[in-house]
Amino acid sequence: VQLQASGGGLVQTGGSLRLSCVASGRTINIYRMGWFRQAPGKEREFVASLIWSGTYTDYANSVKGRFTISRDNAKNTVYLQMDSLKPEDTAVYYCAASPRAGVPYDYWGQGTLVTVFS
Predict the structure, then answer these.
(1) 23 with 1: CB under 8 angstroms?
(2) Are the CB atoms for 20 and 5 separated by under 8 Å?
(3) C-alpha span between 27 and 76 (Å, rounded)
(4) Is 89 left (phi over 0), alpha (psi -120 to 50) or beta?
(5) How far apart are CA 116 and CA 25, in angstroms?
(6) Which of 19, 24, 32, 112 could bridge 98 with an S-S bond, Cβ 3.0-4.6 Å?
(7) Which pLDDT tens digit goes with each residue over 88-115?
(8) Which of 90, 74, 81, 98 is nearest to 16 (CA)?
(9) Which residue, among 56, 88, 53, has the nearest Cα to 69 in the 3D structure?
(10) What confidence tens digit (pLDDT) does each residue in 22-54 have?
(11) Is the separation of the CB atoms in 4 and 24 below 8 Å?
């Protein structure tokens, strides 16, 4: 499975961005898709996830109510709609895929930079 993330950029506080992650290859192997982020000098952290063929979604407390994860199975694409952005959301955002329940994310995209300025 290969993942290609895009959509990052520079945005003012309170603004919005939508990230996309296109999956290719053996996408039938995907069970869960997630978004993670890593800010400068900090460890990578979980942002949001969804079940590829279900309805369950999960969010970090820091983004609940502001970010929305969704998918388009026909396009093998997962989105992260980010609203009400804050400077602390500044990070490189990565998409990732897990092949089975309870298994760590095995597949990672290359990351896309989101910078929120005040």
Answers:
(1) yes
(2) yes
(3) 8
(4) alpha
(5) 33
(6) 32
(7) 999 999 999 999 888 889 999 999 999 9
(8) 81
(9) 56
(10) 999 988 889 999 999 999 999 999 999 999 988
(11) yes
What's the rounded Cα separation, in Å, for the pair 118 and 105?
A: 33
- The Cα-based distances of 104 to 8, 12, 33, 42, 65 in angstroms read 25, 34, 11, 20, 26
Tokens of 36: 């993670």
- Decide if 5 contacts 19 (C-beta within 8 A): yes
For 28, phi and psi rounded to 5 degrees? -65, -20
Question: How far, in Å, CA of 33 to CA of 116, rounded?
Answer: 24
For residue 57, what are its two tokens? 């979604």
Instruction: Take residue 115 and report the two structure tokens written for it.
Output: 């910078």
Which tokens belong to 107?
């597949």
Nearest to 93 by CA among 17, 19, 12, 28: 19
* DSSP for 68-107, written as a single string: EEEEEGGGTEEEEEE-S--GGG-EEEEEEEESSTT----E
